[in-house]
Write a structure and sequence with these properties.
Blueprint lengths: L3 E4 L8 H15 L7 H5 L7 H11 L1 H14 L7 H12 L4 E4 L4 H10 L8 E3 L12 H10 L6 E5 L2 H9 L3 E4 L17 E2 L3 H9 L1
Parallel strand pairs: 1-2, 1-4, 2-3, 4-5, 5-6
Length: 210
């Protein structure tokens, strides 16, 4: 049985990945620019997204790009917590299992979303982009999260949605479950040893309790 769980945020707790993709293309359409393809966006999932942001600044300009992400961050709390994860978080909370978030997004960006979703206080630790030198697929975020939880990586379970995230978790020494979303379901996870993929709340609990 694991002693703690570390969650990714974007695409894992709520499906921000699909929402960000749709918001980006809405702004590109307004500007008369060519929409971003799903394949082009998928390459950034789980990582810093620098390539996408640089392209947007070039195509939309700095001000319009800022408006795009202000809209996305300001409305993401309206998205529902993903069903399997919501049930698993509830299970862990009732048993006082320590939980953390390890995200390639800025901690300062996701904290207001967690507060509006009324789940921020459920997490003992939140580690974001501003807390590490390198984001996913590097293991830094997960290593810092488990260190803050005061557990060894082998005692922690990671919940992810993307290949970059799964690589980061397993490189850090955590076992990893992946539940993909529309934007990451085409990823090839054959290079990563997972303990579960596309699982329900009940299956997450079974894996956790092994």
């Amino acid at each position: 049985m694991y002693k703690a769980v570390v969650f990714d945020f974007d695409g894992t707790i709520i499906d921000t990945e699909t929402y960000i993709f749709e918001t980006i293309n809405k702004y590109l359409k307004i500007a008369g620019e060519t929409p971003l393809t799903k394949e082009g966006y998928r390459q950034s999932i789980g990582g810093s997204g620098d390539d996408v942001y640089s392209r947007l600044r070039f195509m939309l300009g700095t001000n319009m790009t800022k408006l795009l992400f202000q809209e996305q961050l300001g409305t993401s709390h309206q998205l529902p917590v993903r069903e399997a994860v919501e049930g698993f978080i509830d299970y862990l909370q009732k048993r006082n299992v320590p939980m953390a978030i390890a995200t390639s997004s800025y901690r300062s960006d996701i904290t207001p979303i967690l507060e509006r979703l009324e789940i921020k206080d459920l997490f003992n630790v939140i580690i974001g982009l501003e807390d590490v030198e390198a984001v996913k697929p590097e293991p830094d975020l997960y290593l810092k999260a488990v260190q803050a939880l005061n557990y060894s990586p082998s005692h922690c379970l990671a919940i992810e949605d993307s290949l970059n995230g799964a690589k980061a978790a397993t490189m850090a020494g955590l076992d990893c479950i992946v539940n993909t979303n529309e934007m990451s379901q085409q990823d090839d996870f054959s290079s990563v040893a997972l303990v579960g993929k596309e699982v329900s709340t009940e299956e997450m609990i079974q894996i956790f309790e092994k």
